[in-house]
Amino acid sequence: MKLLFIGGTGIISSACYTLALERGHELYVLNRGNSKNIRALSGAQELVADIRDAQEVEKVIAPHSFDVVIDFISFVPEHIEQNIALFTGKTKQYIFISSASAYQTPPQHLPVTEKTPLENPVWEYSRNKIACEDMLLDAWKNSNFPATIVRPSHTYDKTLLPIEGGYTVIDRMLKGKPIVIHGDGSSLWTLTHHKDFAKGLIGLCGNEKSIGEAFHITSDEYLSWNRIYELLGEALGVTPQVVYVPSTVIAKYNQRIGDSLLGDKAHSMIFDNSKIKSFVPDFKCEIPFEQGVHEIISWYKNSPNFQIVDAELNELFDMLVEKQAP
């Protein structure tokens, strides 16, 4: 098939890029052409344009039509409105990458299925994704725009530490300083390796039955946050010193982290992947976090330029630890 990726060098899209080429698809990537991304990719044909400039995009896609367009970088309804106008009549399928954080937060029932309501009263990012989905489904129902919706949940690669604070937390672990875990660390969380996610997404390409449908694509493995941090410590060869802090307290001092916690990570999220498996029978997640975490730590050890400690975050963690001291 002839595929177009809007974006293509991100954590999720990079694995999809590689798999699409491995499966013999003709791949085009639309971007601004000035990325110095750490994920070196080659093999696709580049269409150079700023997706936010409709006239510029219209010119570069004019000679083309696509079997599938996958949109990795729309975040608000205005982005979707523009893309519907640009790609109507230009593609047989338009796959929008939404977010599993759009699901009811906190969920009333686990595991989460595609029938779980979409409702996130805390996180604006998630509410915007919901609005994007609504616009696309309206376009499908009212004008046959061929939309498929995909909801990832905390998908990572070797460059992403899937914890609040990133490398700053690793630096604290290595130096024997206390680290902060939200709540009591017992809530359950789902982490998905980007190579596993790619199998589900690329498997949906060209599947006519998936048009007008929504899917989450996640691992079947779920871990407590305590276990996630334990695995990080094991990969580093250290035992983390842990201080537990309520998510509401963290949110009081840092809104960005607070929104991410209260609007997503503070609540247990387990997913039923029956739907994606019924549409893509060969979809199977094969990389547990116990393996993935070693890829992450190895990459950071060999990438000194990315061993960046955030001084403000360090001060925040020190302050939270001190406030929780008996």
Describe the structure.
- 41% of the residues lie in helices and 15% in strands.
- The chain is of the alpha/beta class and 326 residues long.
- The strands form 4 sheets. The protein has a 7-stranded parallel β-sheet, sandwiched between helices. The chain has a two-stranded parallel ribbon with strand order 7-10. It has a two-stranded parallel sheet with strand order 8-13.
- α1 packs across α6, α3 runs parallel beside α4 and α8 runs antiparallel to α9.
- The mean pLDDT is 95.
Question: What are the SSEs and their pairings?
Answer:
Layout: E1 2-6, H1 11-22, E2 26-31, E3 45-48, H2 54-61, E4 68-71, H3 77-87, E5 94-97, H4 124-143, E6 147-152, E7 155-156, H5 167-174, E8 179-182, E9 188-189, E10 192-193, H6 194-204, E11 214-217, E12 223-224, H7 225-236, E13 242-245, H8 247-253, H9 255-265, H10 274-279, H11 289-301, H12 311-324
Parallel strand pairs: 1-2, 1-4, 2-3, 4-5, 5-6, 6-11, 7-10, 8-13
Antiparallel strand pairs: 9-12
Helix pairs in contact: 1-6, 3-4, 7-11, 8-9
What would you report as the Rg, rounded to the nearest angstrom?
20 Å
- Describe the sheet with the most strands: 7 strands, parallel
How far is the N terminus from the C terminus?
A: 62 Å
Estimate the mean pLDDT confidence: 95
Number of strands: 13
Q: Helical proportion?
A: 40-55%
How much beta, percentage-wise? 15-25%
What is the topology, as strand order, of the major beta sheet?
3-2-1-4-5-6-11
Segments where pLDDT lies below 50 for 5+ residues? none
Classification by helices and strands? alpha/beta
Q: Which term fits the overall shape?
A: globular
Number of helices: 12
